[in-house]
Amino acid sequence: MKRNLLTILALLTVLFSACEKVIDLELENSEARIVIEANLNDLNVDQLIRVTKTVAFGTDRKSDPISGASVVVRSSANEEITFVYERDGYYRAQNFRVRPGTKYSLEIELEGEYYRSSVTMPTYVAVDSLGISKEKIFTEERYYPTFKFYDPAQVNNYYLYEIAINNSPIRFASTYNDKFNDGKYVTHEISDRTIDLELNDEVRIIRYCIDASVYKFWNEFQSANPGGAAPGNPSSNISNGALGYFSVASAVAYFFKTQEYMDKVEQ
Amino acid sequence: MFDKNFILTTLIMLSAFSGLAQKKVLSGIVKDANTGETLIGAVVSEKDTERATSTNNYGFYSLVLEAGERIVTFSYVGYETQTKTISLNESMKNDIELIPNQNALQEVVVSGVQRNKNVRSPQMGSFKFSMEEIKNVPVLFGEKDLLKTIQLLPGVQSGGEGSTNFFVRGGGGDQNLILLDEAIVYNAAHLLGFFSTFNSDAVKDVQLYKGGIPSQYGGRISSVLDITMVDGNQKEFSAEGGVGLIASRLKVSAPLPDDRGSFMLSGRRTYADLFLKLSNDQDVKQSKLYFYDLNAKLNYKIDERNKVFLSGYFGKDELGFSDKFGFNWGNTTATVRWNHIFNDRLFSNTSLIYSDFNYNVGVNGNSGDFDIASKIGNWNLKQDFSFYPSNRSTIRFGANALNQNIRPASLAADKDANVNSIRIEKRKGWDVSAYFSHEWKANDRLSLLYGVRLSDFMVMGPGTFYRFDDDRDVIDEQYFGKGTVAKHYINLEPRLSASLLLNSLSSIKLSYNRMAQNLHQLTNSTSALPTDQYVLSSLNIKPQLADQIAFGYFRNFNGSAYEFSVESYYKAMANQIDFRTGADLQANELLEGELLFGKGRAYGLELLLRKNSGKLSGWIGYTLSKSERKFNGINQGAWFNARQDRTHDLSLVTMYKLSDKWSLGANFIFNSGNAVTYPAGKYDLNNTTLFYYTQRNSHRSPIYHRLDLSATYEPQKSNKRFTSSWTFGLYNAYNRRNAYIVDFRENEDNPNITEAYQIALFGIIPSVTWNFKF
């Protein structure tokens, strides 16, 4: 439905001959704030947590890496894992396998301040079928990697997708809950937030089953639109005003060669 | 519902009161001589004593005068003033027909009382115009639009480029009471806000109150926009219409037999979608994009004392893509009114009013078929009296009972669809209120309009109501059965306006009003969308309240050809509604837990110089203003600028009659930017750049300015019956790229760099419209 609305908005925009240009704005420099990216999952044996700080809007860097933090994760199975600084803000724990149903707690100490969070790792919801679906929007044809699966009934499930097209870095694509289709046979069509998929592209998608608080964070991020009310920072599940999130997720990576699916493209 | 005894007693008292005066009453109806259309706000004044009154919404006036030979003048903007000598030996009825000013090229000099109504009347913060007066104001796509015109007034702001949404004196878009023949119009926008639901052909008169709101109005805290539809030609059959770039219009009206009244039928439809039909593509062919409006009105005179009016509006927008997606929305209103003249001093109107707004979304996609539907509506029974006890007083009183109901968006899915049906409980409320107001000329200098409105809003069952703690978790739920009152919200709303004449051409004015509002729109964007949720006051949501105080100085110049006013106001708002970041507003039973409650304040200064008649007419308006909000949970609990906060606002509206054939119009608009939130920094997660925000609405969007031009060519009449005219327009004549949206993104070539960009909506837009009349 969202996509259909977007189509109509796009049509209206064309009708009213909208035009776009880059502008210069004077934006103030605020004090840097700590940002935590903790995406733990069962795809990898090693786990990475990244600690950075915000930078001013006009800076020619995405963020500033922070090296002096102490990063520890504890589990309900009495594990205590200390992450060791590597480079570029990344802290690594080798051979740390996370298990569904286990509760994990994060504790980061930096400059005398503590940042804490805890989540329970959800069980993976298996995919029933994979494919590429084709949608025609007026005269333009678009392709979407598509996941079909049975959503477990009577429980809240949250899904997150990351996408990499050809050799681009893998990045956030979209996140879903099962509010409207709990217990149903669900279809998720995935697209990159800015790049349209071409027929000869190779696509890598990681599908995560995530905790509600992680869904909340990314959903607030993806819901922000320029015509909306005053934007805010997505609600972090980490304490003490840190930006970012702590997630321990079940995940599976999928590779698509779009061409190979073409004989079974769904209209 | 009303206490019959109370009304009877009041009537008897009022009659007794009127019996005491040893004077005669002149009463009647003021009409247009060509069409028989009643004129609202026409001034009737007596020469010797300068006693004056103006006609009410039905063209009725009543003036108490000394018996004997009286010289009475009748005047109305755009019409020739009539002076009559009347032998007033008995109280008498005197209907008057005024002749429209055919030759506007000559400055009509009218002196005396009638021209200084703006100075003398205690009413302030108001603006009244007829559609005739604004017909040459340039407009977007050549579609005359009263909502776009009022946005050119000081104290009134547009909700965005080309938007019909408007904000009055720092208030919200849902805080305006928009009435069409007394019926509440919930969503006054077509095509996502670019056009208003008001077809200008069907509208006679528009009255806007920004402050000093009289007590007969209630239910919204910011403003009242009272729109009256045309009654229809009482003299002969007539038709008029127009063909424009966006829409075509047709109106027919005709008298009823035996001078019993008249009817009017008016329609409008857009035709952008006809081009879609030309496409070879099946999907495009089946797509929809149009709206239409129908207005109808009938008035029937039963006898000299009784008249009934039926009026209605129906409008719909249709958007659709192929057979996969459909979206339609629209308003319906219906009003039945009965005017009864008890005697020459007591006028009564009884109305039964219905109005609703609904939308439907139909989806036929890969999750199966499902529909989302929502509806909001009300039934309103209303009784109003106008009583004219003496030439110094007009008393208005009445009561109404309004049944408000909301069916929130619910999702209905096919059995085999892959989505679940969701039904959200309906909500109901009764808004019962009574009012009294007295307009009183205390002496030659001081005039007062004071009154009070008492309203009881009853939150009604059936329904489950929740209470929430500070963390927005449910602490208890309570079920109220059908017909039980879950909560009463009783509000006493005092209203006062006063004017003190400094001399015959200038006055100072003061007003205070308290307003209460029990229907709240939850809007997530700057332009109101048809899918915005409405909620009623409930156990959690308290009525929104506003207290406004205003001062003004009014002065007329040049034989009253120019009217000047300066007004300043301060408004305090309580129980304002916002929602927390990331609020889930869709099909959410616990929606109220997502809401935040706070307060607001707005203040400003408004200057207006207006010229109503002559070759050159129009106005210059300037506003200096501030509007702020304060919520726990937003901006660390500190005051922040409201979205509609804008410091400077200037509009210049001019209409010039160049010759008998040509009329010109020009608008110039200049605004300093609205309050917006820009990032204070950035960070990255999962290879995606996120922006870091600190203070809410602490930045300013770029300055906005624009010039619009129009020219109307009306060839000399070749035959008497048929006339036609051409209107040419240029919206945004110097093609200024005003920012509609400012947003931020990663640079395409180097994702380490972030940039700000703006989207402009309209460049220069030419238009041409052909209008006819016979």
Short overview:
The complex is a heterodimer of chains A (267) and B (774). With 267 residues, chain A is mainly beta. Chain A folds into two domains: 34-120, Immunoglobulin-like (Sandwich); 123-264.
Layout of strands and helices, then pairs:
The complex is a heterodimer of chains A (267) and B (774).
Chain A: H1 2-15, E1 19-23, E2 34-41, E3 47-53, E4 64-65, E5 70-75, E6 80-85, E7 90-93, E8 103-110, E9 113-120, E10 129-137, E11 140-150, E12 158-165, E13 171-177, E14 185-189, E15 202-209, H2 212-223, E16 243-257
Chain B: H1 4-20, E1 24-32, E2 43-46, E3 52-54, E4 60-65, E5 68-75, E6 82-88, E7 92-93, E8 96-98, H2 117-120, E9 126-130, H3 146-150, E10 156-158, E11 166-168, E12 176-180, E13 183-184, E14 189-190, E15 195-196, E16 203-209, E17 223-229, E18 238-243, E19 247-255, E20 261-270, H4 282-285, E21 288-303, E22 306-321, E23 325-343, E24 346-365, E25 368-390, E26 393-413, E27 427-441, E28 446-460, E29 463-468, E30 474-480, E31 485-503, E32 506-517, E33 519-522, E34 533-536, E35 544-557, E36 562-579, E37 595-611, E38 616-631, E39 640-641, E40 648-657, E41 662-671, E42 675-676, E43 681-685, E44 688-692, E45 699-700, E46 704-713, E47 723-731, E48 739-746, E49 754-760, E50 765-773
Parallel strand pairs in B: 1-7, 1-8, 12-17
Antiparallel strand pairs in B: 1-4, 2-3, 2-5, 5-6, 9-16, 10-11, 12-13, 14-15, 16-17, 18-19, 18-50, 19-20, 20-21, 21-22, 22-23, 23-24, 24-25, 25-26, 26-27, 27-28, 28-31, 29-30, 31-32, 32-35, 33-34, 35-36, 36-37, 37-38, 38-39, 38-40, 40-41, 41-46, 42-45, 43-44, 46-47, 47-50, 48-49
